[in-house]
Amino acid sequence: MVGTRRLNQLTESVKEAADFPPPPFVVALSGGADSAACAWIAALLGPTRAIHVHHGLAASDLMAAAARSVAHALGIEVDVVHIEVVPWSEGRARKLRYEALLGGLVAGEWLLTGHTADDQAETILMHLLRGSGLAGLRGMLPVAPLPGAPDLTLIRPLLAIPRTAILAYCREHNLTPIED
Predict the structure, then answer these.
(1) CB burial readout 105-114, b (16+ within 10 A) else e
(2) How far is CA 131 from the centre of its chain?
(3) For residue 125, what are the contacts with CB-CB under 8 A and spacing of at least 6?
(4) Average pLDDT, whole number, for the chain?
(5) Mapping DSSP to helix (H, G, I), strand (E, B) and coil, where does residue 26 land?
(6) Cβ proximity of 32 and 163 under 8 Å
(7) I want to staple 127 with a disulfide (CB 3.0 to 4.6 A). Which of 1, 91, 136, 151 is the partner?
(8) What percentage of residues in the chain have a pLDDT greater than 90?
(9) Which residues, 6 or more positions from 59, have their beta carbon under 8 angstroms from its beta carbon?
């Protein structure tokens, strides 16, 4: 599968890349396949830990358990941070998630998320439907300031990888994420 080969090449190139920042890394670990693959790659590079944001919803305990399972399999620490998103809205949830992640970062750490090419396509489509300008149509950047903290950096190393490749990669590496 081309996508899996591409992801394995990404893993190798990330391990060798001089332009990839040095650890320590913090991975936003939902417990799903995308963040599990991201955590796997980060853990190969050096000191890594994870933060799982518990949304207080019906499935949140299952998601937290999956995040703990993935972190345990990788031998990395995971902190579970609780937020309450009432009333529910995806925009509000995103804002609170980034605030929780920001609160868990220590100076010198890089935040990595498991956003994929599928997430990028969805983001661009949503921006287009909302009537975005050119900046919105470019979608997410692979490296960007962390929302709410422009002096901290958010890295999306899987942004060019399709979700199908991520799922295959997780199977190949015996990671058992939950469907998020």
Answers:
(1) eeeebbbbbb
(2) 26
(3) none
(4) 84
(5) strand
(6) no
(7) 136
(8) 36
(9) none
**Each residue's pLDDT tens digit, 128-156:** 777 777 766 678 888 888 877 888 888 99
Token output for 73: 């399999």
Residue with tokens 């996508």, as numbered in its chain: 3
| Total Cβ atoms within 10 A of residue 8 | 15
How many residues would you count in the chain?
Answer: 180
Strand partners, 49: 26, 77
Distance in Å from the first CA to the final CA of the chain: 23
Q: How far is CA 39 from CA 7, 74, 84, in A?
A: 13, 8, 25
Residue 103 corresponds to which tokens in the numbers above?
Answer: 């609160």
Q: Which one-letter amino acid corresponds to residue 23? A: P
Q: Dihedrals φ, ψ of 146, to 5°?
A: -70, 130
